[in-house]
Amino acid sequence: MIVVIRRDDRFLLARSSRVTRNFYSLIAGFVEPGESLEQAVVREVKEETGLDVNNIRYQSSQPWPFPHQLMVGFIADYQGGELCLQEDELADAGWFCADDHPPIPPETTIAGRLISALKDEIAGNRSDA
């Protein structure tokens, strides 16, 4: 699973401590036995960032390079907590605006599509105000 977390008009981006690419991406992880996808989102976000999320909603999926894997993408809302990184997973993370953020994955990836979908959601909320 992979998730983009919304906090008002900003979203969380993180840089992996394991990947040397020079861009930020989203929180991702694996579903444990007996866990729902939504429970995995809550657990992975809490483990890797110390944050609590709610209003978890499915956005899209993408085949993943591992054999027989499917990456399932979600958008979730920040519920609470202070950003506290699991250092063996994340080197850096922060809240960014749609028009001011570090390099991100292209829209050909599920991470890129999730970020784009959230940017559209934020822009839609602004135009409704």
List keywords for this structure.
129 residues, alpha+beta, Nucleoside Triphosphate Pyrophosphohydrolase, 6 strands, 37% strand
Topology:
Elements: E1 2-7, E2 10-16, E3 27-28, H1 37-49, E4 52-64, E5 69-80, E6 90-97, H2 110-128
Parallel strand pairs: 1-5
Antiparallel strand pairs: 1-2, 1-3, 2-6, 4-5
Task: Give a short synopsis of this structure.
With 129 residues, the protein is of the alpha+beta class. The protein is 25% helix and 37% strand.
- Give the count of structural domains: 1
Q: Give the CATH topology.
A: Nucleoside Triphosphate Pyrophosphohydrolase
CATH superfamily: Nucleoside Triphosphate Pyrophosphohydrolase
- Regions with pLDDT < 50 over 5+ consecutive residues? none
Can you tell me the CATH class? Alpha Beta
Secondary structure tally, helices: 2
**Structural class label:** alpha+beta
Q: Mean pLDDT score, rounded?
A: 92
Q: Any idea what the shape is? A: globular
Secondary-structure element series = EEEHEEEH
CATH architecture: Alpha-Beta Complex
Calculate the terminal CA-CA distance, rounded to whole Å: 32 Å
- Which oligomeric state applies? single chain
Radius of gyration: 14 Å
What is the strand content?
35-45%
State the helical fraction.
10-25%
Number of strands: 6
Q: How does the major sheet shape up? A: 6 strands, mixed
GO molecular function: metal ion binding; NADH pyrophosphatase activity; RNA NAD-cap (NMN-forming) hydrolase activity
Enzyme class: hydrolase
EC number: 3.6.1.22
Catalytic activity: a 5'-end NAD(+)-phospho-ribonucleoside in mRNA + H2O = a 5'-end phospho-adenosine-phospho-ribonucleoside in mRNA + beta-nicotinamide D-ribonucleotide + 2 H(+)
